[in-house]
């Protein structure tokens, strides 16, 4: 058996050229998946910090109610005839602001 013929004049590709597609894929993942998720989390945190009594909110479970009191980690909510205490993190969005909100008047 004869030895395999060697490539004439051919050079092995640089190790960097094999990493370029991987690096491009990571950059795309960052801008398509990670960055929007971080932005959404920051907006949600800002929403939670602006909760006040009188705001009408909807929870992540779909319960719609009016905030009665805001504590450090919980919110007291009235929905129809029920009064419940939920975590702030479960507030999904604010449907209506209470009348004393000056920050929305721009």
Please describe the topology of this protein:
Elements lengths: L14 H35 L6 E4 L4 E7 L3 E6 L2 E6 L3 E6 L10
Antiparallel strand pairs: 1-2, 1-5, 2-3, 3-4
Written description of the protein model:
With about 110 residues, the chain is an alpha+beta fold. It has a single domain, classed as Roll (SH3 type barrels), CATH 2.30.30.60. The protein is built from 1 helix and 5 strands. It has one helix at about 15-50; strands spanning about 55-60, 65-70, 75-80, 80-85, 90-95. The chain has a 5-stranded antiparallel beta sheet with strand order 4-3-2-1-5, with helices on one face. It is rod-shaped and about 90 Å long. The chain starts with 14 loop residues before the first helix and ends in a 10-residue tail after the last strand. The model has no long low-confidence stretch (mean pLDDT about 85).
